[in-house]
Amino acid sequence: MERCPCGSEKDYKQCCGPYLSGQADAPTAELLMRSRYTAYVKHHIDYIEQTHDLGERDEESREETRKWSENSTWLGLEILGTSKGSAEDDTGTVEFIAKYKQSGQIHEHHETSEFQKINGKWYFKEGKLYNATVVNAGPKISRNAPCPCGSGKKFKKCCG
């Protein structure tokens, strides 16, 4: 049994697997959200793109999505709340936190996503990110010092 990455207690083949393989469509906004998270974990970029609102797809975001998916170690999904999004609704929202590790640091992606059902199928419409306050516990970095992210740029031209 392979536990599904979406956080359910179900086996992947009985949970998000049928959605990612195209055997079934997610019947609710929350299940689409969970399956999209699973697609990031499994680097299934086609699924992420196919479940994105038709008017918002572009090649640049596909490449950024691929990089984020592949350069991250996905640590878990927490659903904080939902509004509408049932099989009977045409719109829904899901608030969630996706935890991931990148370049040795753990990050939390906190978002409220809006979903819309078109011709009986759910699509991700847009998301609202919540920015966390970042507190630097280490020494202050000079504006002209090399950026600690490893980009090779000065801190002021990069993460500063």
What is the CA-based Rg, rounded?
A: 18 Å
Overall geometry comes to elongated
Quickly count the helices: 4
Class inferred from helices and paired strands: alpha+beta
Unreliable segments of 5+ consecutive residues? none
Provide the β-strand percentage band: 25-35%
Can you put this structure into words, describing what you see?
The protein is an alpha+beta fold and 160 residues long. Strands 1-2-3-4 form a four-stranded antiparallel beta sheet, covered by helices on one side.
Which helices and strands appear, and what pairs or packs with what?
Blueprint: H1 17-20, H2 29-41, H3 45-50, H4 59-70, E1 73-84, E2 91-102, E3 105-118, E4 121-129
Antiparallel strand pairs: 1-2, 2-3, 3-4
Short description:
This protein has helices at 17-20, 29-41, 45-50, 59-70; strands spanning 73-84, 91-102, 105-118, 121-129. 22% of the residues lie in helices and 29% in strands. The protein starts with 16 loop residues before the first helix and ends in a 31-residue tail after the last strand.
Give the key terms.
single chain; 160 residues; alpha+beta; four-stranded antiparallel sheet; 4 helices; 4 strands; elongated
